[in-house]
Amino acid sequence: MDDVEGSPARLGRRPAAVRSFFSRGEPAHRKPCCSLPVVKIEHYDYGSEIKSLNIHFAPLEKMKSTLPYPHRHDFYHIVWVTRGTGCHIIDSVKYEVRPNSLFFMAPGQIHDFTLSEDAIGHTISFSPEFFAFRVHNRHSLTDIPIYSLENLNNALYLDDMQAESLRQIMDAIIEEYTAEKTGHEDVIWSYLRIFLMKISRIAVPSAIADLSSRNLLLSRRFKSALEKNFGTMNETAEYAKLLKVTERALNEATRQALGLTAAQLIRERIMLEAKRLLLHTEIGVAEIADRLGFEDPAYFSRCFKKHTTRSPIEFRQSLPTLNF
């Protein structure tokens, strides 16, 4: 049992209340619990599109004027700012925007933009299904380090050589996307995977990018299970049983691959959702505690303060300081 202060084992579980929020293992960010806009990939009506692919490419300047901010997505989203300045907040972390800034976000992440009038660039949006359902596909997004490793920044600042390398791939993708020639779907998929792996090479030190690592593969399976089950499964033992490994093996894998134990990753994911709900909804602290599996709101507040150094109320009141 994970019985240290703030550990998942001490969260307490109230299945009826919790499952109304995390029903059937769905991640919390997919539930309509928040007033925050959830942008779906089918909402993207600018530029050309191939709806059967569940993927969209569009100029950044069109995205600036068509979407509500802040919002969260139900898809993967990449923003490449080639010119202009500003600020970009992703899950309450503020990033500077400057020429050749690249931002990558996973489903459920909340972001907000302020960009200068002269800002231009590219956006790529694609659903998990786009990667999963390709013919003869033996790869998934868990093979992409920027989407599978913990504690990576959501921002990447490219030098001229890196930007030129990615620009060539982007140009090839856009050409296939607009021409719609025979086999264009598979070509786009291949180019996109190359683009993502190129980004990963820049973002992730080679020492932890060993895709054949057994520990890394187990860690990815754990992260996938955690995203589906956090709030209903809050103990390392439960995930070890689900993944058919020992707790020791699971902790060793996540510690080596991600730098944190499984229990720490569970806490991190729950606290991230707490931050999202506090900053972007008007839900009361007691209800947030209940939704995240805490029987005692006071205990939730203590855990939250230990994690962030601020009480839930103080954290919620910090929202103005995160604005631009």
Short précis:
This protein has 14 helices and 11 strands. With 324 residues, it is α+β, with helices and mostly antiparallel strands. A 6-stranded antiparallel beta sheet has the order 2-3-10-5-8-11.
Q: What topology does this entry show?
A:
Layout: H1 15-19, E1 38-39, E2 49-50, E3 55-59, H2 60-66, E4 71-73, E5 76-83, E6 86-90, E7 93-97, E8 101-105, E9 110-115, E10 120-126, H3 128-132, H4 145-148, E11 155-157, H5 160-179, H6 184-203, H7 214-229, H8 236-243, H9 247-258, H10 262-280, H11 285-291, H12 297-308, H13 312-317, H14 319-322
Parallel strand pairs: 1-4
Antiparallel strand pairs: 2-3, 3-10, 4-9, 5-8, 5-10, 6-7, 6-9, 8-11
Name the CATH class of the largest domain: Mainly Beta
Number of domains: 2
Q: Please report which band the strand proportion falls in: under 5%, 5-15%, 15-25%, 25-35%, 35-45% or over 45%.
A: 15-25%
Number of distinct beta strands:
11
> What is the CATH H-level superfamily of the largest domain?
Regulatory protein AraC
Give a verbal description of the structure.
Strand 6 (86-90) and strand 7 form a beta hairpin. The longest helix is centred in the middle third of the chain and has 20 residues, at 160-179. It is globular and about 55 Å long. The chain has 14 helices and eleven strands. The strands form two sheets. It has a six-stranded antiparallel beta sheet with strand order 2-3-10-5-8-11. A five-stranded mixed beta sheet has the order 1-4-9-6-7, with no helix packed on it. Helix 7 crosses helix 8 (236-243), helix 7 runs parallel beside helix 10 (262-280) and helix 11 crosses helix 12 (297-308). Helix content is 45%, strand content 16%. The N and C termini lie far apart (43 Å). It folds into two domains: 8-22 and 230-322, Arc Repressor Mutant, subunit A (Orthogonal Bundle); 38-208, Regulatory protein AraC (Jelly Rolls). The chain is an alpha+beta fold. One of its GO terms (molecular function) is DNA-binding transcription factor activity. It comes from Bradyrhizobium australiense. Keywords: Activator, DNA-binding, Transcription, Transcription regulation. Pfam families: AraC_binding, HTH_18. This is Helix-turn-helix domain-containing protein.
